[in-house]
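Notes to self, Universal stress protein:
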Amino acid sequence: MTRPITAGVDGSQESLAALAWAGREAVRRGLPLRVVHAWRYAEQLATADRGTQRGWASDAVTEAVRAVAERHPQLVTTVDVVEGEPVHALVRAAADAEMLVLGSRGHGPVVGFLLGSVGQQVIAGTARPVVLVRAEDRPAAEAAGRDVVVGQHGDSEDSAAVLRFAFETAAARGAGVRAVRAWTLPPVFAYSPGSLKLLDDAGGLEPYEKEALSAALAPWRERFPGVPVTEHVEMGSAGQVLLSAAARAQLLVVGRRAHRSAVGARIGSVAHGVLHHAECPVAVVPHE
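result:
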């Protein structure tokens, strides 16, 4: 089954930027584009019945899609105008998508302001990659020379989904991958005879981290031999190291655990941090 690239549109400038980004990515990958708009019936508008309000919503989305179709006449596009809660509609739409693309608001000093509750709940509620795009995003940011930056953590299995997404995206764009692995000094109680032996065999902490990154990248280098790869290992907090490495990136790819905690679904502290501060679009890819 061919999965479309799906864009959630609500009429905001951020969502229109997300739609434009999704259209370009669909063309690169040879995939169809699906546009989803969720609307809710406003009972307070006594002069407009449900059919009229649905027509307004449909007209607004159709106009936005027309602009994308004019730029990409070869693109196969479908539009779904769904009545209901945006979070539920977008999570359902994401289930059948190669990725879901949403708009984000830009920088904000209040935690949660950038992404908004809808975006956070959608990211946490779907098992598919979600890309967040700012209103200021422009096609020029995808120029040659800008890497796709990806955060790698854990072993090869832990980061397989994240690295796959990064390499597929870079291959479609003719870009390079900059793979970033951040590390910190573990607390004394974390050391065990087994871990100390591993570190001794690797020659210390930093060589061990470099070896782990190279091992995780090996199968993807083999699968995508035409994608240039830069390995970046740095001591520091994962969020800060990723943001620094992505200063001139065309896309930042991060992972999140695809499970629910006792207090509900979470997107993870690293993903949450980079979504608030990254200048480029951010892809959040769930992994087990």
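- Residues 5-137 form a domain with the Rossmann fold fold (CATH 3.40.50.620).
- The first helix runs from residue 13 to 29.
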